[in-house]
């Protein structure tokens, strides 16, 4: 087995995933293309040496239906012989794309692979591929008759760990405060490549951060899922999940360059990190969002490390109960957990989020001199990815 290294990682700024959002006017293919172009320009590699572009994308319909990575490669001006493939593991799609790239290089199958992710939720709305269809089928429904949507699953997680509204809102206000500090201090500048919209505007900063967010303001929001059949099935439940303590619907793209250590050395490129271990697990599909807990245990065991060894941990903030429950079970300090804020403040462009988290985690390790970082995220169906990185150099 060879050694795969991460040479560089970049991302777009994140835009609000609705009409009028900063990135809503740009086709998702061209959004990803500009990020891919930014990655190869920054590293100076010949794009013709890229042997595959593995792209996480959840909404594989509409403008994201024609293998978006392949279209982005062509839009970015890469030679036509550079191929691409789409990975869809729900919210973990981008992280899984990185894992597949690392595995291909470590196995000696390829030497230069880009892992990327893209999601334009303003142009390809979440769930639009499913429509009114039941994606589970009668066999799954018979085995798990109490399946619910992700928002209600977040309510179930909050109830299981006895998380009240005040705790969720305090966590969410902290996410915005940390992200706002990072943005204002320029901590995201090195990881963001400018994206130019068709109107000629350069988008260079995350649009989703609300620096004035307070617990008092969040307390004024109504629960988002306390309606319809779920309210009838859960009488007496104290509903606590709101739009303010959930991730934001967003647009964005990100990309990571993975190489064999030998190829990077031959090109004079200094690797930034390596993947120490990765894991993917399934967990209870009804609770759905608890997968990061066993995934973290699995990846730390595989790496031979403990949570205290991690300089920082990125737990995707799909909903505030997710990272809080994770911390209750795994431990770690508040300073370790999402030190620059998370998806509650920075948005969650589904297929791109796994690569976005890794890009931000790498930047944080570089700035602070931390050695190890952990990244994990919950996924629909009760799955989760986890990855341990080691900073090099």
Question: What report would you give on this structure?
Answer:
Its EC number is 2.3.1.-. Residues 270-391 form the Thiolase C-terminal domain. Residues 5-262 form the Thiolase N-terminal domain. It comes from Pseudonocardia nematodicida. Keywords: Acyltransferase, Transferase. The chain has helices at residues 28-43, 68-75, 93-106, 137-143, 150-160, 165-184, 215-219, 228-233, 261-266, 292-303, 321-330, 343-346, 350-368; strands spanning 4-11, 15-16, 52-56, 84-87, 112-120, 195-196, 202-203, 250-260, 273-282, 310-315, 372-379, 383-391. The radius of gyration is 20 Å and the shape is globular. Strands 1, 2, 3, 4, 5, 8, 9, 10, 11 and 12 form a ten-stranded mixed β-sheet that branches. A two-stranded antiparallel ribbon has the order 6-7. The chain contains 13 helices and twelve strands. The mean pLDDT is 96. The longest helix is centred in the middle third of the chain and has 20 residues, at 165-184. It has 393 residues and is an alpha+beta fold. Helix 1 (28-43) crosses helix 2, helix 3 (93-106) packs across helix 13 (350-368) and helix 10 (292-303) packs across helix 11. Strand 11 and strand 12 form a beta hairpin.
Short description:
The protein is α+β, with helices and mostly antiparallel strands. It is 35% helix and 19% strand.
């Amino acid at each position: 087995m060879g050694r795969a290294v991460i040479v560089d990682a970049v991302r777009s700024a994140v835009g609000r995933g609705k009409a009028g959002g900063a990135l809503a006017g740009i086709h998702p293919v061209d959004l990803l293309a500009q990020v891919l172009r930014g990655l190869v320009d920054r590293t100076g590699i010949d794009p013709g040496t890229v042997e595959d572009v593995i792209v996480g994308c959840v909404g594989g319909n509409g403008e994201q239906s024609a293998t978006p990575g392949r279209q982005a490669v062509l839009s970015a001006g890469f030679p036509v012989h550079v191929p691409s493939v789409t990975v869809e593991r729900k919210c973990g799609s981008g992280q899984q794309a990185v894992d597949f790239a690392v595995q291909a290089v470590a196995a000696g199958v390829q030497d230069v692979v880009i892992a990327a992710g893209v999601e334009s939720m303003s142009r390809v709305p979440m769930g639009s591929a499913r429509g009114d269809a039941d994606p589970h089928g009668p066999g799954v429904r018979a085995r798990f008759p109490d399946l619910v949507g992700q928002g209600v699953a977040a309510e179930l997680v909050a109830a299981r760990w006895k998380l009240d509204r005040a705790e969720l809102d305090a966590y969410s206000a902290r996410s915005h405060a940390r992200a706002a500090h990072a943005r204002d201090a320029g901590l995201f500048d090195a990881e963001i490549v400018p994206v130019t919209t068709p109107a000629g505007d350069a988008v260079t900063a995350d649009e989703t951060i609300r620096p004035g967010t307070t617990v008092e303001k969040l307390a004024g929001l109504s629960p988002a899922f306390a309606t319809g059949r779920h309210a009838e099935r859960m009488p007496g439940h104290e509903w606590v999940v709101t739009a303010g303590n959930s991730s934001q619907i967003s647009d964005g793209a990100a990309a990571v360059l993975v190489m064999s250590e030998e190829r990077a050395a031959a090109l004079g490129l200094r690797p930034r990190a390596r993947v120490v271990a990765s894991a993917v697990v399934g967990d209870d599909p009804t609770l759905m969002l608890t997968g990061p807990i066993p995934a973290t245990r699995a990846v730390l065991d595989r790496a031979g490390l403990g949570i205290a060894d991690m300089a920082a941990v990125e737990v995707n903030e799909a909903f505030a109960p997710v990272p809080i429950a994770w911390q209750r079970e795994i431990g770690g300090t508040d300073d370790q957990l999402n030190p620059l804020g998370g998806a509650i403040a920075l948005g969650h462009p589904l297929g791109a989020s796994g690569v976005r988290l890794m890009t931000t985690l790498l930047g944080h390790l570089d700035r602070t001199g931390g050695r190890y970082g952990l990244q994990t995220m919950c996924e629909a169906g009760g799955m989760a990815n986890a990855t341990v990185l080691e900073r090099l150099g």
